[in-house]
Amino acid sequence: MTVAQAPASTEAGYNYGYLNEQTKRMIRRAILKAVAIPGYQVPFAGREMPMPYGWGTGGIQLSASILGPDDIFKVIDQGADDTTNAVSIRKFFARVTGVETTEKTGEATVIQTRHRIPETPLTEGQIMVYQVPIPEPLRWVEPRETETRKMHALEEYGVMHVQLYEDIARHGRIATNFMYPVKVNGRYIMSPSPIPKFDNPKLDNSPALHVFGAGREKRIYAIPPYTEVKSLDFEDFPFTVETWDECCALCGAEDSYLDEVILDDAGERMFVCSDTDYCATRRSQGHFGPMAGREDLAELTGAASENEGRNA
Amino acid sequence: MYVAVKGGEKAIDNAHRLMAEERRGDASVPELTVEQILQQMSLAVDRVMSEGSLYDPWLAALAVKQARGDLVEAIFLLRAYRTTLPRLYDSLPVDTAAMDVRRRISATFKDVPGGQVLGPTFDYTHRLLDFSLAAGGAPEAAVKEAVEGEGEPSLSRVMDLLADEGLVDRPAEDGTKPVGDITKDPMTFPAPRDVRLQNLARGDEGFLLALGYSSQRGFGDNHPFAGEIRMGEVAVSICPDELGFEVEIGDITVSECEMVTSFKGSKDELPRFTRGYGLSFGYNERKVMAMSLVDRSLQARELGEDIVAPSQDEEFVLYHSDNVEAQGFVQHLKLPHYVDFQADLVMVRAMRAEILKRAESKAETGEAA
Description:
- The structure holds two protein chains of two kinds.
- Chain A is an alpha/beta fold.
- Chain A has helices spanning about 20-35, 55-65, 85-95, 145-155, 160-170, 275-285, 300, and strands at about 40-45, 70-75, 100, 110-115, 125-130, 180-185, 190, 210-215, 220-225, 230, 260, 270-275.
- Chain A contains seven helices and twelve strands.
- In chain A, the strands form three sheets. A seven-stranded mixed beta sheet of chain A has the order 1-9-8-5-4-2-3. In chain A, strands 7-6-10 form a three-stranded antiparallel beta sheet, with no helix packed on it.
- In chain A, helix 3 links the parallel strand 2 (about 70-75) and strand 3 (about 100).
- In chain B, about 40% of the residues lie in helices and about 15% in strands.
- By secondary structure, chain B is an alpha+beta fold.
- In chain B, helix 3 (about 40-50) packs across helix 4 (about 55-65), helix 8 (about 195-200) packs antiparallel against helix 10 and helix 9 crosses helix 10 (about 285-295).
- Chain B has 13 helices and four strands.
């Protein structure tokens, strides 16, 4: 957020960052309100974007409103910089802002994401921008917005614990694995967006600012730096995250979230880091997993398609 | 080996090129012009303008061409363009009584002042494929008949005639607050009628058609009669502050439908009919008829009716009517979700393993005994 005066767009006919300045101001106000009331969903007049709803229009509007010429921008989808929609969003911002882009988590000042938080710990001054499909954590127990707003106002959250309890009664465990609800700053129950619960602990007391944008549902919410974020649980059924028996087949990491890749019809599979930057960095530091040397997997390590999807 | 969605820029660019190629089709067939779509696919253009919420036939025709005839996609294109336009003035309310009508019918009266004008309609065509259209050639010219109300400055609306008699309510005019705009402010509930009507006017025709139909079939029946349907050109005016007087800026084509619906009355009130309203850009008769049914259903709260049917439920209707929102969210399911699926997969496998292990140890202890 280093922009004092709007610089010129690199795309003829469009304002810097695509949105006009009035819209950006409206969104920045909503962000400030969201930061002031951690976890509270602020309604905002979301605009129609040139990408479909569901493709990250909420996150895109947030990024458009906060990116300045000095920022360095990273976009990931499923943890990877080279998934098609991440490539498309990064290209959009390179076009309408001319902003410098990166794949390195440590270099980025703004990181837009869908479904993951990078493995590399975030630092002060970084902003995480989340794309949110359904911002309302109570939506699965109450479809009506008029009701859920009331429940938040009255802090009437018992029903969430009832739902978790019913999971335990039925399945012997809490069966929510992503979009796992959290309580922010001891007040609002919030959806962390569909990140796997593996990533929830990264939100607690994070030095970075986390902002969440739901374009279709027209809501913005935030977690300011160093805010307590607690995943809902019970004393006798504490919150846990997923684990794998395998390590990353390419970099050997045992502490990262893994994607499962099915290799052939016979069911051969491998597990690899979902965070491509984390995996590549580890490999460049000399860490290798059991399948790192396999030539038929060169496409996954990026060796076969160097420079593709990269945008300086 | 198949590497899901990790294709990068090259794949995207190639997909766009393929799309452009398929849009063009066989290059030996002459390319469709925007002007041809504008002239000969005018109902597609009208629907795109109406749900795209922007009156610009040429741009709507361009969107239809770009979308290869996929109207929901064309509507999306027009909306995305609309959102970048500056908003200079609010127009004054259009006066549909002053419409230059091309079609005007009432199902509630055999004749109405100004007369009934059938106009261009599919209504009484026999739906037989017309093979002569494939051969081309000029259509037979329509004989222009003198219309009773033609040239008159104003054609009273049927509903106004009923309102004069007190048989329907005249909606109260409230000039004190600005008209709501869901493109500038997020929707909140309960939603006032101006906001509801704007939402329905932009809403998906198919969705409104199904909802209106459901109300006719008894899910919140309103006993509707088509009081009046009219289509034609109306003048649009603005009143710039710096001038202080009205300036007409052009004519637009609109369709309007007013439904006369179930009557009510009580100890203290004389019985009278209720009403539903539909309006859209262009010639969209089916849309405005469905819209007026749904508008009436959504008045359930104000009229003290029980809210029992989907068409009466404003959160249900207004949150799900927009096809740009709906198509996006439904189709986003094709974006990669493998991180979240992996989370479920890990859990379901663990649960199965646990259960199988338990069954196994039970079997063992059973054998031992």
